Amino acid sequence: MKKTLACILAVLMSFGCCATSAFAATAPMDYGDANCDGSLDITDVTTIQMSLAKLVTLDYLQNLLADFNHDNEVSVLDATSVQKKLAGLPLPEGCGGAMLTDVRVSEFFADFNSGTAATNSPVTFTAKASVSGSGLSYEFLVDNEIAQPKSESNTFVYTFQNAGNHFVEVRAYNEWGFYNSSVMNYEVLSEAASELRLVTLYAEQSENAYTFVAQADGGTAPYTYCMTIKPDNSFGETGLSVQDVAAFNDYANANVIKWQLMRDEADNAYLYGEFSEGEAVSINKACLCFYVKDYVLSAQAKDAEGNISDALTTLVPGVKVG
Questions:
Q1: What structural domains and CATH numbers belong to the chain?
Q2: 99-129: per-residue pLDDT in tens?
Protein backbone atom coordinates (compact mmCIF):
# COMPACT_ATOMS: atom_id res chain seq x y z
CA MET A 1 0.00 0.00 0.00
CA LYS A 2 1.31 3.40 -0.90
CA LYS A 3 2.40 5.43 2.09
CA THR A 4 3.17 9.11 1.66
CA LEU A 5 4.17 11.94 3.88
CA ALA A 6 5.41 15.45 3.59
CA CYS A 7 8.11 17.45 5.31
CA ILE A 8 7.80 21.22 5.12
CA LEU A 9 10.66 23.53 5.91
CA ALA A 10 10.25 27.31 5.80
CA VAL A 11 13.54 29.12 5.27
CA LEU A 12 13.15 32.82 6.03
CA MET A 13 15.75 34.94 4.31
CA SER A 14 17.69 37.77 5.93
CA PHE A 15 17.22 40.01 2.92
CA GLY A 16 13.93 38.60 1.70
CA CYS A 17 13.56 36.32 -1.27
CA CYS A 18 12.08 36.72 -4.69
CA ALA A 19 8.37 36.00 -4.81
CA THR A 20 6.71 34.99 -8.04
CA SER A 21 8.08 37.67 -10.28
CA ALA A 22 5.86 40.31 -11.82
CA PHE A 23 6.10 40.89 -15.52
CA ALA A 24 5.79 43.83 -17.86
CA ALA A 25 2.29 44.59 -19.06
CA THR A 26 1.62 43.83 -22.70
CA ALA A 27 -0.19 46.33 -24.89
CA PRO A 28 -3.99 45.96 -24.97
CA MET A 29 -5.44 44.42 -28.13
CA ASP A 30 -8.43 46.01 -29.80
CA TYR A 31 -11.64 44.04 -30.18
CA GLY A 32 -12.26 43.61 -33.88
CA ASP A 33 -8.58 42.98 -34.67
CA ALA A 34 -9.45 39.51 -35.93
CA ASN A 35 -6.12 38.90 -37.66
CA CYS A 36 -4.15 40.03 -34.59
CA ASP A 37 -1.82 42.34 -36.51
CA GLY A 38 -2.15 45.19 -34.01
CA SER A 39 -4.39 47.43 -36.09
CA LEU A 40 -8.10 47.64 -36.85
CA ASP A 41 -8.71 47.86 -40.61
CA ILE A 42 -10.62 46.34 -43.52
CA THR A 43 -8.50 43.17 -43.41
CA ASP A 44 -10.14 42.35 -40.07
CA VAL A 45 -13.58 42.60 -41.66
CA THR A 46 -12.37 40.25 -44.40
CA THR A 47 -10.99 37.80 -41.82
CA ILE A 48 -14.32 37.68 -39.97
CA GLN A 49 -16.25 37.19 -43.22
CA MET A 50 -13.89 34.41 -44.36
CA SER A 51 -14.28 32.62 -41.02
CA LEU A 52 -18.08 32.78 -41.35
CA ALA A 53 -17.73 31.30 -44.83
CA LYS A 54 -15.56 28.49 -43.39
CA LEU A 55 -12.63 29.58 -45.56
CA VAL A 56 -10.36 30.19 -42.57
CA THR A 57 -10.39 28.96 -38.98
CA LEU A 58 -9.89 31.47 -36.20
CA ASP A 59 -7.75 30.45 -33.24
CA TYR A 60 -8.73 31.07 -29.63
CA LEU A 61 -7.44 34.66 -29.41
CA GLN A 62 -8.83 35.58 -32.83
CA ASN A 63 -12.28 34.33 -31.76
CA LEU A 64 -12.16 36.50 -28.66
CA LEU A 65 -11.15 39.60 -30.59
CA ALA A 66 -13.53 39.00 -33.51
CA ASP A 67 -16.52 39.20 -31.13
CA PHE A 68 -16.68 42.97 -31.59
CA ASN A 69 -20.17 43.40 -30.12
CA HIS A 70 -19.50 41.12 -27.11
CA ASP A 71 -22.46 38.78 -27.60
CA ASN A 72 -20.27 35.66 -27.16
CA GLU A 73 -20.37 34.64 -30.81
CA VAL A 74 -18.71 35.71 -34.05
CA SER A 75 -21.33 36.68 -36.62
CA VAL A 76 -22.01 39.02 -39.52
CA LEU A 77 -23.01 41.62 -36.93
CA ASP A 78 -19.39 41.81 -35.80
CA ALA A 79 -18.13 42.36 -39.37
CA THR A 80 -20.79 45.05 -39.92
CA SER A 81 -19.94 46.80 -36.65
CA VAL A 82 -16.22 46.89 -37.49
CA GLN A 83 -17.08 48.41 -40.88
CA LYS A 84 -19.14 51.09 -39.11
CA LYS A 85 -16.24 51.77 -36.75
CA LEU A 86 -13.86 52.23 -39.68
CA ALA A 87 -16.35 54.53 -41.43
CA GLY A 88 -16.81 56.64 -38.29
CA LEU A 89 -20.48 55.76 -37.95
CA PRO A 90 -22.27 55.44 -34.61
CA LEU A 91 -22.00 52.03 -32.94
CA PRO A 92 -24.39 50.21 -30.63
CA GLU A 93 -23.49 50.53 -26.96
CA GLY A 94 -20.92 48.00 -25.75
CA CYS A 95 -19.10 47.45 -29.04
CA GLY A 96 -15.33 47.51 -29.37
CA GLY A 97 -12.91 48.32 -26.60
CA ALA A 98 -9.61 46.74 -25.68
CA MET A 99 -8.59 43.46 -24.06
CA LEU A 100 -5.49 42.86 -21.98
CA THR A 101 -3.64 39.59 -22.58
CA ASP A 102 -1.47 39.78 -19.47
CA VAL A 103 -1.58 36.36 -17.85
CA ARG A 104 1.23 33.87 -17.30
CA VAL A 105 1.52 30.47 -15.68
CA SER A 106 4.77 30.61 -13.72
CA GLU A 107 4.63 27.25 -11.88
CA PHE A 108 2.85 23.95 -12.44
CA PHE A 109 3.74 20.87 -10.39
CA ALA A 110 2.30 17.76 -8.74
CA ASP A 111 2.78 16.33 -5.27
CA PHE A 112 4.09 13.15 -6.95
CA ASN A 113 6.71 13.44 -9.67
CA SER A 114 5.87 11.94 -13.04
CA GLY A 115 6.55 8.21 -13.06
CA THR A 116 5.95 7.75 -9.31
CA ALA A 117 2.17 7.90 -8.79
CA ALA A 118 0.05 4.78 -9.26
CA THR A 119 -3.47 4.29 -10.56
CA ASN A 120 -6.32 4.77 -8.07
CA SER A 121 -4.19 7.09 -5.94
CA PRO A 122 -5.13 10.80 -5.81
CA VAL A 123 -2.57 13.24 -7.19
CA THR A 124 -2.69 16.96 -6.38
CA PHE A 125 -1.65 19.40 -9.09
CA THR A 126 -0.86 23.00 -8.19
CA ALA A 127 -0.49 25.98 -10.53
CA LYS A 128 0.63 29.54 -9.92
CA ALA A 129 -0.10 32.36 -12.35
CA SER A 130 0.16 36.14 -12.55
CA VAL A 131 -2.04 38.78 -14.14
CA SER A 132 -1.72 42.54 -14.32
CA GLY A 133 -5.32 43.09 -13.28
CA SER A 134 -7.89 41.01 -11.43
CA GLY A 135 -10.19 38.10 -12.16
CA LEU A 136 -7.61 35.30 -12.27
CA SER A 137 -9.13 31.83 -12.65
CA TYR A 138 -7.85 28.33 -13.39
CA GLU A 139 -9.11 25.46 -15.52
CA PHE A 140 -7.58 21.96 -15.52
CA LEU A 141 -7.69 19.41 -18.34
CA VAL A 142 -6.61 15.76 -18.49
CA ASP A 143 -5.96 14.26 -21.92
CA ASN A 144 -7.62 17.29 -23.56
CA GLU A 145 -10.84 16.90 -21.56
CA ILE A 146 -11.91 19.45 -18.94
CA ALA A 147 -11.50 17.77 -15.55
CA GLN A 148 -12.03 20.84 -13.36
CA PRO A 149 -13.96 23.84 -14.78
CA LYS A 150 -12.78 27.42 -14.37
CA SER A 151 -12.65 28.56 -10.76
CA GLU A 152 -10.47 30.57 -8.41
CA SER A 153 -8.86 27.38 -7.08
CA ASN A 154 -5.28 26.84 -8.25
CA THR A 155 -5.20 23.21 -7.05
CA PHE A 156 -6.68 20.13 -8.68
CA VAL A 157 -6.93 16.60 -7.28
CA TYR A 158 -7.23 13.77 -9.81
CA THR A 159 -7.23 9.98 -9.54
CA PHE A 160 -5.97 8.25 -12.68
CA GLN A 161 -7.74 5.04 -13.59
CA ASN A 162 -5.33 3.99 -16.35
CA ALA A 163 -1.56 3.60 -16.31
CA GLY A 164 0.60 5.22 -18.98
CA ASN A 165 1.35 8.75 -20.12
CA HIS A 166 -1.29 11.44 -19.66
CA PHE A 167 -1.37 15.09 -20.66
CA VAL A 168 -2.35 17.36 -17.78
CA GLU A 169 -2.93 21.00 -18.66
CA VAL A 170 -3.71 24.11 -16.64
CA ARG A 171 -5.17 27.22 -18.22
CA ALA A 172 -4.96 30.50 -16.32
CA TYR A 173 -7.56 33.06 -17.44
CA ASN A 174 -7.68 36.79 -16.92
CA GLU A 175 -10.91 38.74 -16.59
CA TRP A 176 -11.11 39.27 -20.38
CA GLY A 177 -11.17 35.52 -21.02
CA PHE A 178 -7.64 35.30 -22.40
CA TYR A 179 -5.63 32.36 -21.11
CA ASN A 180 -2.07 31.11 -20.89
CA SER A 181 -1.46 27.39 -20.41
CA SER A 182 1.14 24.94 -19.20
CA VAL A 183 1.09 21.25 -20.12
CA MET A 184 2.65 18.37 -18.20
CA ASN A 185 3.36 14.93 -19.67
CA TYR A 186 2.53 12.83 -16.62
CA GLU A 187 3.36 9.12 -16.36
CA VAL A 188 1.18 6.93 -14.11
CA LEU A 189 2.25 3.48 -12.87
CA SER A 190 0.00 0.44 -12.66
CA GLU A 191 0.92 -0.10 -8.99
CA ALA A 192 2.90 1.63 -6.29
CA ALA A 193 6.53 0.75 -5.80
CA SER A 194 7.39 -1.52 -2.89
CA GLU A 195 10.96 -0.25 -2.58
CA LEU A 196 11.59 2.93 -0.64
CA ARG A 197 11.75 5.94 -2.94
CA LEU A 198 11.91 9.68 -2.50
CA VAL A 199 9.40 10.67 -5.15
CA THR A 200 9.03 14.42 -4.66
CA LEU A 201 11.32 17.27 -3.70
CA TYR A 202 10.65 20.88 -4.58
CA ALA A 203 10.99 24.41 -3.25
CA GLU A 204 8.19 26.96 -3.08
CA GLN A 205 8.81 30.69 -2.80
CA SER A 206 6.91 33.35 -0.94
CA GLU A 207 7.80 36.95 -0.18
CA ASN A 208 10.14 36.10 2.67
CA ALA A 209 10.38 32.32 2.83
CA TYR A 210 11.39 29.19 1.00
CA THR A 211 9.29 26.10 1.72
CA PHE A 212 10.80 22.71 0.92
CA VAL A 213 8.47 19.76 0.40
CA ALA A 214 9.64 16.14 0.30
CA GLN A 215 7.55 13.01 -0.14
CA ALA A 216 8.41 9.29 -0.12
CA ASP A 217 6.63 6.04 -0.79
CA GLY A 218 7.37 2.32 -0.51
CA GLY A 219 9.40 0.82 2.31
CA THR A 220 8.02 0.94 5.84
CA ALA A 221 6.59 4.10 7.35
CA PRO A 222 7.22 6.32 9.21
CA TYR A 223 9.87 8.11 7.19
CA THR A 224 12.66 10.49 8.10
CA TYR A 225 14.08 12.99 5.61
CA CYS A 226 17.81 13.73 5.63
CA MET A 227 18.55 17.04 3.93
CA THR A 228 21.59 19.13 3.10
CA ILE A 229 21.96 22.68 1.81
CA LYS A 230 25.12 23.48 -0.15
CA PRO A 231 26.10 26.11 -2.71
CA ASP A 232 25.65 25.20 -6.36
CA ASN A 233 29.19 24.16 -7.30
CA SER A 234 28.71 25.37 -10.87
CA PHE A 235 29.69 28.74 -9.40
CA GLY A 236 33.01 27.24 -8.28
CA GLU A 237 32.05 27.21 -4.61
CA THR A 238 32.16 23.91 -2.74
CA GLY A 239 31.03 25.09 0.68
CA LEU A 240 29.06 27.77 2.48
CA SER A 241 30.68 31.19 2.45
CA VAL A 242 32.25 32.82 5.50
CA GLN A 243 29.22 35.13 5.61
CA ASP A 244 26.86 32.16 5.55
CA VAL A 245 28.70 30.40 8.38
CA ALA A 246 28.82 33.54 10.52
CA ALA A 247 25.14 34.30 9.94
CA PHE A 248 24.12 30.74 10.75
CA ASN A 249 26.22 30.62 13.93
CA ASP A 250 24.86 33.95 15.15
CA TYR A 251 21.30 32.73 14.76
CA ALA A 252 21.87 29.15 15.98
CA ASN A 253 23.59 30.34 19.17
CA ALA A 254 20.48 32.30 20.09
CA ASN A 255 17.82 29.81 18.97
CA VAL A 256 17.07 26.11 19.07
CA ILE A 257 16.93 24.83 15.48
CA LYS A 258 17.15 21.44 13.77
CA TRP A 259 19.66 22.43 11.09
CA GLN A 260 23.30 21.76 11.96
CA LEU A 261 26.47 23.27 10.51
CA MET A 262 28.59 20.39 9.20
CA ARG A 263 31.90 20.06 7.35
CA ASP A 264 32.97 17.47 4.83
CA GLU A 265 36.41 15.83 4.52
CA ALA A 266 37.70 18.85 2.62
CA ASP A 267 36.48 21.17 5.42
CA ASN A 268 33.69 22.61 3.23
CA ALA A 269 30.76 23.84 5.31
CA TYR A 270 27.17 22.82 4.65
CA LEU A 271 23.87 22.58 6.52
CA TYR A 272 22.34 19.25 7.51
CA GLY A 273 19.05 18.34 9.12
CA GLU A 274 16.82 15.33 9.74
CA PHE A 275 13.08 15.90 9.72
CA SER A 276 10.26 13.52 10.54
CA GLU A 277 6.70 13.21 9.32
CA GLY A 278 4.83 16.49 9.25
CA GLU A 279 7.68 18.40 10.85
CA ALA A 280 8.25 22.04 9.92
CA VAL A 281 11.55 23.79 10.63
CA SER A 282 12.28 27.46 9.96
CA ILE A 283 15.58 29.31 9.82
CA ASN A 284 14.73 32.91 10.53
CA LYS A 285 16.12 35.97 8.77
CA ALA A 286 19.89 36.24 9.29
CA CYS A 287 20.46 32.48 9.46
CA LEU A 288 21.67 32.40 5.86
CA CYS A 289 23.12 35.12 3.64
CA PHE A 290 22.03 34.32 0.09
CA TYR A 291 24.50 36.26 -2.07
CA VAL A 292 24.91 36.06 -5.84
CA LYS A 293 24.86 32.25 -6.01
CA ASP A 294 22.39 29.44 -5.91
CA TYR A 295 22.02 26.69 -3.35
CA VAL A 296 21.25 23.02 -3.87
CA LEU A 297 18.86 21.23 -1.53
CA SER A 298 19.55 17.48 -1.51
CA ALA A 299 17.34 14.96 0.29
CA GLN A 300 17.10 11.25 1.00
CA ALA A 301 14.30 9.34 2.71
CA LYS A 302 14.97 6.84 5.50
CA ASP A 303 12.24 4.38 6.52
CA ALA A 304 11.51 2.65 9.84
CA GLU A 305 13.76 -0.28 8.93
CA GLY A 306 16.74 1.94 8.19
CA ASN A 307 16.54 1.69 4.40
CA ILE A 308 17.73 4.82 2.60
CA SER A 309 16.42 6.01 -0.76
CA ASP A 310 18.36 7.47 -3.65
CA ALA A 311 18.81 11.23 -3.40
CA LEU A 312 16.83 13.93 -5.14
CA THR A 313 18.04 17.51 -5.53
CA THR A 314 16.36 20.82 -6.27
CA LEU A 315 17.76 24.30 -6.83
CA VAL A 316 17.18 27.08 -4.32
CA PRO A 317 17.84 30.42 -6.08
CA GLY A 318 20.13 32.83 -4.30
CA VAL A 319 19.14 36.44 -3.73
CA LYS A 320 21.34 39.24 -5.03
CA VAL A 321 22.29 41.57 -2.22
CA GLY A 322 23.51 45.10 -2.54
A1: 1-19+206-322 (2.60.40), 29-99 (1.10.1330.10), 102-195 (2.60.40.10)
A2: 777 788 888 998 887 887 888 889 999 999 8
